[in-house]
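Lay summary. Proteins are chains of building blocks that fold into shapes, and those shapes determine what they do. In this project we predict the shape from the chain. Here is one chain we studied, written as its sequence of building blocks.
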Amino acid sequence: MAPPLWVIGAPRSGTTFLARVLDHHPQVLLTNETRIMLLFSRMLNRWVESRRLLATSKAEILDSLWRQTPGVIEQIYRDLGARPGQRWGDKYPQYADGDQEPEALATIDRLFPEGQYVHIIRDPRAVVASIVAKGWLPFDEAIQAWRDFVTHAMAFGQGVGSSRYHELRFEDLVTDGPTTVDSILKFLGLPDDEGVVRFLRSQESGRDRLSYPTGIPGSIGPAAWEARLDGEQVRAVESKLGDLMTELGYERSSSSTY
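And here is the predicted shape, written in a compact code that computers can read:
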């Protein structure tokens, strides 16, 4: 099997759209939130601590599990249709959840030391607005979630290095999809593909509604959040996340607009 590929990012950051784009490449098979690596991460790091599940010969069994698990996962992906030489893997934001799933990325890295990671980052104002609109988290917790996911993934990326970790902005994928995807394919060592370009072009006038509310228009710039966040909320996001926003190239709007 070729090395796996994992798409990560904070919730509501465009991971689903990015995965669909990459899955249009004939040399890629990306599943959509099978969450398979959480299953094995929790088994290898948490469940084994329960004596009700594993008592005697624990060290020997755990060592065997770590050695055998990569082959099990690869076989699962063969059963899901991955062909020899095809890049395979999963898209799931929570792999980068440093709060609830702190072992996940390290576990994936230990199981597949040649795997690669694509981290998509979206403007936190849009992410917070979308998370709150979905009813997943209260406003303040949504702000903290964006920081936790992004910083955890970035720290992991620094650890594995640029040959295995690639970072992009959702806004660049929307405004200049072909160039942005070309950089991802080069990172993955894959050739350009006309099918990927055709899919991107088909989404420019109106993206398929994958998960309300993320549709274009309104997914980038102030239109992505101004209808859902009032001025005080925008200032709160920018105040609490301004340092990281600046580092990632997102300009604050509160001083001039709100």
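What the prediction tells us: The two ends are 52 Å apart (CA to CA).
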